[in-house]
Amino acid sequence: MLLSAARPLLGARCSVPVAGLCAVRARALTRGKTLSVQRQERCLHCHGGAALQRQGPAPPELKDIRQIPGPKPLPLLGNTLYMLNKKNGFDPQDFSVFWKQLMQDFGPIVKLKIVSMPQMVVTLNPDDVQTFLRPTPDHPTRFGFNSVAKIRKEDKTGLFKDNYGLLTENGPRWWHLRRRVQAPLLRPKNVAMYLPAVDGVACKFMDSCNAATARPPDAILVTPLPPWFPMLSIALEAIQEAEARLEEAKALGEPDRQLTIMETFLRTDGLSRSEVATMILDLIMGGIETTSLSVGYALYLLARNPEAQRRLQQQVDAVVRRDEPLKPEHLAALDCVVHVIKETLRLYPVAFANARLLTRDAVLSGYRVPAGTFVLGLSGLVSRMEEHFPRPLEFLPERWQRDRPYGAIHPFASLPFSHGTRMCIGKRLAEQEMYVFLIRAMQRYTVTYELDHDVVVQTQLVAKPVTPLAFKFHPRTDAL
Ligand code: HEM
């Protein structure tokens, strides 16, 4: 604002040189030349802008991190006992209760110190989330998978000797992996390659839904991975199959075909076989429960909002037939399903918070927060706040339409996949899976929820329903 108000001051031609102008502007002035609008703007955004800003009212004084409200810390123990006290909302089954109560008691930004953890700052301000997730020059640092890291460190098979994996690594070891795997996983062309396979699985699932009982879909959708789930053997088997396919293709003189994601990993310079295996494990760990739970919440919300379900069915019916394979063009034409998923992830984000260890100093809600602080943006609470989402507890997928009928949406107020260089690497695959599932479900069924109470959700690593998602799938007789 300051800059645009001051712009006329500079005019098309300045006659009085001002100390502190940038080289471009100073050179132009000494030669008696005028600057193009673009070059003037460049000036305003560097030294000229700073000089002008100095003439305006002084910016509000930044406050010290020590002034951030929070429970009084004890010597050595900090707020550890406070956090473990049931009276303060501590519930090992549901961490969200503690965070909710903390923010109610102390306000939108709170400071906390837990033994063996760095100083912690927790915020409900989406501007703060933008500040700490945006900067990308350093390696974004996150922790929270300590048990996985420990198992991998202590593993005797040698599988994790080079690297403990994308989920748990930080610093250069994380970037070594991330820069090699993110293009294959996030490139739209690669994701679209899996559309026929995902579509096939979705259609098969729909055929298996038994209209007479609510149990089968419920059981399939929300069962967590059992501890015996043979993740490692699945990963190793998949690698062997991919290696065999690559060998075969080589023997046949490399026919011109698009490589699968796994084949691309195996062909990537600098990725060892064990790193590929670890990557596959992380994709299974990061991808299965998150996506299936989110689809479960979407069905639940649609079942409880028949009007929204009907609108989605109408759009799906208009765009694609039941017997037609789904193509990227269909997905592009189905904005309703995108809005349904966005609204579902706003109301039921599986990840409750976005977290980073600050690698450089930052200003959060007007407080100076030093590097080394652990910051937490409670996205699970922010995305249900009325100031960001009018009628916050209602399921209103249309609020995500381009014309934003319920008002503008802060881009960091609902952030289910996080943001920046360390955002969810499976975002596009997950979105595609969820869209396909809902499209195929809506074509064949109208879904109802069979219980007379709201689903109860508890948050540990992910937010899970602890009451059954008891659906009934009623075959549609009105669709093509
Ligand atoms: C609805 C589905 C999903 C949600 C809501 C979700 C959410 C998230 C979030 C919030 C993060 C943390 C990002 C950060 O710290 O900035 C994350 C990371 C990650 N996700 Fe997802 N995810 C989903 C599906 C998937 C899928 C399908 C895959 C695999 C194919 C996957 C693999 C991963 C991996 C490997 C990471 C770690 C990335 C890194 O640290 O560099 N996720 N996800």
UniProtKB/TrEMBL annotation:
The keyword Iron applies. Heme binds at residue 424. Keywords: Heme, Iron, Metal-binding, Monooxygenase, Oxidoreductase. The keyword Nucleotide-binding does not apply. Gene3D superfamilies: Cytochrome P450. It holds the Pfam family p450. GO terms for molecular function: heme binding; iron ion binding; monooxygenase activity; oxidoreductase activity, acting on paired donors, with incorporation or reduction of molecular oxygen. Its cofactor is heme. Belongs to the cytochrome P450 family. This is Probable cytochrome P450 49a1. It comes from Hyalella azteca (Amphipod).
